[in-house]
Specification:
binds NADP nicotinamide-adenine-dinucleotide phosphate; disordered C terminus; Rossmann fold; alpha/beta; 2 domains; globular; 6-phosphogluconate dehydrogenase C-terminal fold; 13 helices
Length: 305
């Protein structure tokens, strides 16, 4: 495939950035990949595994001369990074991010960017519970959705950036920021909070059950523990910045939970059966859409943390 951007700067070198680096190499769409991370430890690992063509010490240095800059840090860190890189951005560069929340990133980053750059927020709907520069792999985005939130950006630049994500294996859709945040609250953010809660409840009960929670861990609970092992900083920021949509979905969740609780108390088997029949159909829809498999780690090694 032909080069799409001559120089790409990745700010933050965790799961998503390292997967992007591998996928860019696989597709041959970046002339040069420059990376940076906050800590010397992460930069040293990235050097050691040759994740990028160049690793530099600061975000401002990384963006110099870059045609595409992608912010791959937690949502709560985006504003400080934007402030730091703004004076060093190349005129005409495309600035994007991979944050899991879009309205908050637009509000945090947009005001700091100079005239003449193109801001195209994005969110690849792909991930694992692993973090750090060793956790990435080229196949992470294959057949996953990447949502672009162009927010009025130049159509030609958006089309090129769409092609870039397609070259990394993703299917691309455009969405308005608030709609994205509501959809993700239902499909990702609230489910993560529920998983964190369920694992927390089991942990509280551990004194009663000793190690039985771990010993007899059944499929349902095991799945929750995998989700609840996700990066604490990333998820703290998701809930702090997608507050309204998450609270809206949690409100609805609580109402449904009370209805199921009542059905159990009243012995209303018909209600339970109807409910589970409806949810089973949703699972079938996901399988039919080819979105049921978790991308495997392909033995790329353990995560940093
Ligand atoms: P990660 O593996 O934990 O890596 C995060 C990177 O950000 C690290 O390089 C870290 O630097 C850096 N960082 C953390 N706090 C920072 C701060 N305050 N200032 C500057 N840099 C900081 O994270 P990730 O999973 O790749 O997530 C990155 C972004 O992608 C997040 O915005 C997240 O919402 C989004 N996202 C994640 C997933 C997922 O499933 N993981 C999926 C889609 C989108 P050090 O290593 O030096 O600490």
């Amino acid at each position: 495939m032909a080069v799409i951007y001559d120089r790409v700067a990745l700010i933050g070198l965790g799961l998503i950035a390292s997967s992007m680096a591998h996928a860019m190499r696989r597709a041959g769409v970046a002339g040069e990949i420059v990376g940076t991370a906050r800590s010397a430890e992460t930069r040293a690992i990235a050097e050691e595994i040759k994740l990028c063509d160049r690793i530099v010490a600061s975000a401002a240095e990384a963006v110099e001369g870059a045609d595409l800059v992608v912010l791959c840090v937690p949502v709560g860190a985006m504003e400080a990074v934007a402030r730091e890189i703004a004076p060093a951005l190349k005129p005409g560069a495309v600035i994007s991010d991979v944050g899991s929340v879009k309205r908050a990133v637009i509000e945090a980053v947009g005001p700091h960017l100079p005239e003449g750059v193109h801001f195209i927020p994005a969110h690849p709907l792909a991930g694992t519970e692993h973090s750090g520069p060793r956790s990435g792999f080229a196949e992470l985005f294959d057949n996953r959705w990447c949502i672009l939130v162009p927010d009025g950006a130049d159509a030609t630049q958006v089309a090129t950036y769409r092609g870039y994500w397609e070259s990394l294996g993703a299917n691309v859709e455009e969405m308005e920021a608030d709609h994205h945040d509501l959809v993700l609250a239902v499909t990702s953010h609230a489910p993560h909070l529920i998983a964190y809660t369920m694992v927390g409840v089991a942990d509280d009960l551990r004194r009663v059950t000793d190690s039985e929670v771990i010993k007899y861990s059944a499929a349902g609970f095991r799945d929750f523990t995998r989700i609840a092992a996700s990066d604490p900083t990333m998820w703290r920021d998701v809930f702090l910045t997608n507050k309204d949509a998450t609270l809206e979905i949690l409100g609805r969740f609580t109402e449904e939970l009370f209805a199921l609780q009542r059905a159990i108390r009243m012995g209303d088997g018909a209600h339970l059966h109807d409910y589970f029949t409806r949810t089973r159909a949703i699972r079938r829809g996901i399988i039919e859409a080819g979105q049921d498999t978790d991308a495997p780690n392909f033995g790329r090694g353990p995560s940093k943390r």
